[in-house]
User: Fold this.
Amino acid sequence: QVQLVESGGGLVQAGGSLRLSCAASGTIVSINSMSWYRQVPGKERELVAVILSLGSTNYADSVKGRFTISRDNAKNMVYLQMNSLKPEDTAVYYCSADVDTIVAFATRYLEVWGQGTLVTVSS
Assistant:
């Protein structure tokens, strides 16, 4: 089993900053890409940022220049530094990881999701 646990969400005023963290635990052979998604009620979940195992990154246009994704491979963690927050950034933020794990003595690929953490940006 592999689990992701997010932390760091909360209430912040527009223009402020928050740092989200996501810790992966369990039987992990390797973690390939790690991503942050967000979802507003009534809308589809959208990709915010992704980071590959060697560090290359990609961002949604709406957060470029304001958000930074990073990871610590030794700790199996991924972070999202969010600056210059706007009310439209309000959402539940989810961590996701593409993980190689061991199931029944064989390596298996899993896409794992965290439970989400709420970010609320007030105007």
In short: The chain has a mean pLDDT of 96.
